[in-house]
């Protein structure tokens, strides 16, 4: 790593463990370096942070406010807690809301067994969905020659939007609507296959945490995503 | 019907905007929509090319703001307030009469394309409820008998109803001609700026700090401190901003509208003083899209102030003091009253709030140091300099000096904006407004707006001060005092609150995006079934607490407070008659 020269190390505590942080490092990065796991769905190494999923919320001693670890900077003397009872409760609640919103049916999903949302439910112990399912009727966009977008499985983490913008530079993907109506769109909300700006690079598919973005021709459980290219691309660009 | 828009209409507009960047997106969309009534796809593509904004973002922005239209819409749009305060004053009857007359339901355009009709959230004219907007023309106190007059635009325009005293911030409103600079000068305008320019910026900030002004929009951040942080933030004056947040969209809030419409030069002068104290050269006024009359008057006032040299370079001969203001019109999004969402809106993006820190005083508009103040806050700061710190501190209470604008609406005899010193009790304030009409009793008072809490009749003797609000756990917020008499249907009010937040949630963070929707569904069931199941009651509370504590911005953090206060006060509203 290039940044290591002339840096002041900040010392703080995460869950009682003494850790040292570089200037500008976030709590999430720091926790990961030290083997402390903080759950997150919208964070993606290599693109900017979004802060929307609220699963990485942490508590900082002296403050009543919960802050997202992905965007909280490590500061000297901080005492951070990542697994307090109220955090655990809220994470489960948020995941419950998410699981009940669209049509997340693992048994028939291409990403069954390779899905960040499914893993998160296992990790947080959400064995049941406590809220009534909304069962919305959402379209599947299969107009693209290589890829498919299934809105039924989208969790609006905006990873695809960010990677399309920040890594590929195509700026094809965006979001429309508000609140519960937010949808991922291509250009002026046209079918993906008709987008003039999409380069068909497929990065969005690889970063999608669920089965919302998939390659054509994949059957149940076959869609395995490759994420490794992103930090690699990022590193090559920095050099 | 011809589906192909005449793009030659657009050419002069695009030429005018050519070379500008993304911050011109909202103004350009407003102007383009004025040509066609809506924004056809070809127009969206042309806008995207001109400002070099991705297609997906142009579309996303149009879809975000409710006053931009993506499908054929008439140039004539009728918007009727369907929110709580108007409902209390009988809007249901007017709406029924209007819908029968038009033969349209909300969101529909007549088959000949001559009129589009919408029911909308609070239009900020609650003292004139039931109210509506006919394109840019506001109308108030509407009854079913007024439908024809309203449609003919023959209904008189409502004017500010101001009461109370001492009128420090509303001194000129209603007395001056809002578009006349000379009239403003004759009524003492620009004397305070002259006084301020004779002081050092440091001295002004120290005065404002000593005045103990807290943000009047509801967040109650110390104003002097905010100014100091921005002044001390790294950056030249050309890189710093002063923003007047005139996006008041909190249901029941209409306090700033009076000033914006009746004393626009007052706000310009107040912003100029703030800019001098902070050392900022860029001013912005962001007015909500539902205030077209205020926008027109502000735009006129800014142009005239600029012409007369009150804005621009070396203002009033002060060497190196440059300041100018741009007025921006929102397009229907409550979330844009949140300061960071407002920055995004000015920058031409969807109004998604940002995560703080970093705070606006160092990373605000365009990531530059920014002071963003509510309109009333800026007027309060100017009032301190006008009357002097000593006089200011004599008004109100020691910990809450000065005056506050309270918005009285609902079941009171004289609704309106009341500028009053801090310290009156809620009951005294309601009595000042003539009390509840008829012999009816108060059932509840909503304090602080949709994001506030309900108080029962036995808690109305609490004084309206910051210290009492904190001790007694109610918000002063934006000054909303909405009175519900014994005849009011509280279940319907809760449903309206929930509907408002579900409609206005931006969708960025899960707890608010999904939680506001769940809250709405449950309260809808409560309304229709006359109660809920125990599971629903538990879910309402669980979702409410999760939203309050985990949402990204103030909208989600307060979307459940009024509802939760109601479930505690009147559990029978939620669980009675369960099926």
Task: Give your account of this protein's structure.
- The complex is a heterodimer of chains A (239) and B (579).
- Chain A is an alpha+beta fold and 239 residues long.
- Chain A folds into two domains: 75 residues, Ubiquitin-like (UB roll), CATH 3.10.20; 132 residues, Alpha-Beta Plaits, CATH 3.30.70.
- In chain A, the strands form three sheets. A five-stranded mixed β-sheet of chain A has the order 2-1-5-3-4, covered by helices on one side. Chain A has a three-stranded antiparallel β-sheet with strand order 6-7-10. In chain A, strands 8-9 form a two-stranded antiparallel sheet.
- Chain A is globular and about 55 Å long.
- Chain B has five domains: 58 residues, no CATH class; 75 residues, 3-Layer(aba) Sandwich (Glutaredoxin); 231 residues, NADH-ubiquinone oxidoreductase 51kDa subunit (Rossmann fold, 3-Layer(aba) Sandwich); 83 residues, Ubiquitin-like (UB roll), CATH 3.10.20.600; 84 residues, NADH-ubiquinone oxidoreductase 51kDa subunit, iron-sulphur binding domain (de novo design (two linked rop proteins), Up-down Bundle), CATH 1.20.1440.
- In chain B, the strands form three sheets. Chain B has a six-stranded mixed β-sheet with strand order 6-12-11-15-13-14, with helices on both faces. A five-stranded mixed β-sheet of chain B has the order 2-3-1-4-5, covered by helices on one side. A four-stranded parallel β-sheet of chain B has the order 9-8-7-10, sandwiched between helices.
- In chain B, helix 12 packs across helix 14.
- The mean pLDDT of chain B is 96.
- Chain B contains 25 helices and 15 strands.
- Chain B starts with 10 loop residues before the first helix and ends with a helix.
- The chains are: A alpha+beta (239), B alpha/beta (579).
CATH architecture of the largest domain in chain A: 2-Layer Sandwich
Strand order of the largest sheet of chain A: 2-1-5-3-4
Largest sheet of chain A, if any? Answer: 5 strands, mixed
Order of helices and strands of chain A: EEHEEEHHEEHEEHEH
The greatest interface here is: A-B, 42 and 40 residues
Number of individual domains of chain A: 2
């Amino acid at each position: 790593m290039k940044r290591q020269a002339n840096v002041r190390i900040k010392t703080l505590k995460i869950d009682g463990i003494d850790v040292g942080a570089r200037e500008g490092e976030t709590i999430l990065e720091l926790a990961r370096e030290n083997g402390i796991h903080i759950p997150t769905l919208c964070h993606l190494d290599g693109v900017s942070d979004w802060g929307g999923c609220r699963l990485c919320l942490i508590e900082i001693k002296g403050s009543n406010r919960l802050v997202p670890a992905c965007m909280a900077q490590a500061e000297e003397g901080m005492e951070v807690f990542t697994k307090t009872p109220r955090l655990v409760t809220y994470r489960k609640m948020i995941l419950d809301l998410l699981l009940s919103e669209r049509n997340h049916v693992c048994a028939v999903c291409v990403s069954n067994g390779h899905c960040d949302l499914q893993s998160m439910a296992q990790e947080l112990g959400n064995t049941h969905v406590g809220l009534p399912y909304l069962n919305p009727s959402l379209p599947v966009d299969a107009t693209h020659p290589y890829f498919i977008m299934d809105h039924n499985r989208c969790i609006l983490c905006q990873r695809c939007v960010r990677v399309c913008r920040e890594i590929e530079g195509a700026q094809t993907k965006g979001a429309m609507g508000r609140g519960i109506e937010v949808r991922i769109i291509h250009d002026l909300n046209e079918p993906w296959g008709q987008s003039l700006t999409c380069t068909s690079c497929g990065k969005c598919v690889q970063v999608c945490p669920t089965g919302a973005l998939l390659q054509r021709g994949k059957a149940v459980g076959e869609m395995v995503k490759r994420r490794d290219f992103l930090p690699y691309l990022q590193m090559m660009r920095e050099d | 019907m011809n589906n192909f828009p005449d793009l030659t209409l657009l050419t002069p507009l695009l030429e005018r905007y050519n070379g500008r960047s993304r911050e011109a997106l909202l103004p350009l969309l407003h102007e383009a929509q004025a040509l066609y009534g809506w924004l056809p796809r070809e127009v969206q593509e042309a806008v995207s090319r001109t400002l070099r904004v991705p297609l997906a973002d142009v579309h996303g922005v149009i879809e975000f703001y409710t006053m931009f239209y993506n499908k054929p819409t008439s140039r004539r749009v009728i918007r009727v307030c369907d929110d709580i305060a108007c409902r209390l004053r009988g809007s249901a009857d007017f709406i029924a009469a209007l819908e029968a007359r038009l033969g349209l339901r909300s969101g529909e355009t007549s088959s000949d394309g001559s009129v589009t009709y919408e029911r909308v959230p609070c239009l900020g004219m609650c003292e004139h409820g039931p109210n509506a907007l006919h394109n840019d023309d506001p109308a108030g106190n509407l009854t079913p008998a007024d439908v024809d007059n309203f449609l003919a635009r023959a209904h008189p325009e409502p004017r500010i109803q101001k009461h109370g005293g001492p009128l420090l911030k509303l001194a000129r409103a209603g007395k001056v001609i809002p578009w006349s600079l000379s009239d403003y000068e004759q009524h003492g305008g620009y004397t305070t700026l002259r006084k301020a320019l004779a002081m050092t910026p440091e001295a002004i900030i120290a005065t404002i700090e000593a005045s103990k002004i807290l943000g009047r929009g509801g967040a109650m951040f110390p104003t002097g401190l905010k100014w100091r942080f921005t002044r001390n933030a790294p950056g030249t004056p050309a890189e710093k901003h002063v923003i007047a947040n005139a996006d008041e969209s909190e249901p029941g809030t209409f306090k700033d509208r009076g000033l914006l419409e009746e004393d626009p030069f007052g706000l310009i002068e107040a912003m100029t003083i703030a800019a001098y104290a902070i050392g900022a050269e860029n001013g912005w006024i962001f007015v909500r899209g539902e205030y077209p009359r205020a926008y027109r008057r502000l735009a006129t006032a800014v142009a005239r102030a600029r012409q007369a040299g009150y804005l621009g370079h070396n203002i009033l001969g002060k060497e190196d003091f440059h300041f100018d203001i741009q007025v921006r019109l929102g397009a229907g999004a409550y979330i844009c009253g949140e300061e960071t969402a407002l920055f995004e809106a000015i920058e031409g993006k969807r109004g998604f709030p940002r995560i703080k820190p970093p705070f606006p005083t160092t990373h605000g508009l365009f990531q530059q140091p920014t002071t963003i103040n509510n309109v009333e806050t800026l007027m309060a700061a100017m009032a301190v300099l006008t009357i002097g710190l000593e006089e200011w501190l004599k008004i109100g209470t020691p910990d809450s000096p000065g005056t506050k604008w309270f918005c009285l609406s609902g079941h009171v005899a004289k609704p309106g904006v009341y500028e009053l010193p801090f310290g009156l009790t809620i009951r005294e304030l309601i009595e000042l407004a003539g009390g509840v009409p008829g012999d009816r009793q108060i059932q509840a008072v909503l304090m602080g707006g949709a994001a506030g809490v309900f108080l029962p009749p036995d808690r109305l003797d609490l004084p309206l001060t910051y210290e009492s609000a904190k001790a007694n756990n109610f918000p002063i917020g934006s000054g909303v005092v909405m009175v519900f008499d014994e005849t009011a249907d509280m279940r319907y009010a809760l449903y309206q609150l929930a509907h408002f937040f579900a409609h206005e949630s931006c969708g960025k963070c899960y707890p608010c995006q999904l939680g506001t929707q769940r809250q709405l569904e449950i309260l809808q069931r409560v309304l229709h079934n006359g109660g809920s199941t125990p599971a629903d009651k538990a879910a309402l509370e669980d979702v409410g607490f999760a939203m309050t504590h985990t949402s990204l911005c103030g909208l989600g953090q307060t979307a459940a407070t009024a509802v939760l206060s109601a479930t505690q006060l009147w559990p029978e509203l939620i669980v009675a008659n369960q099926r």
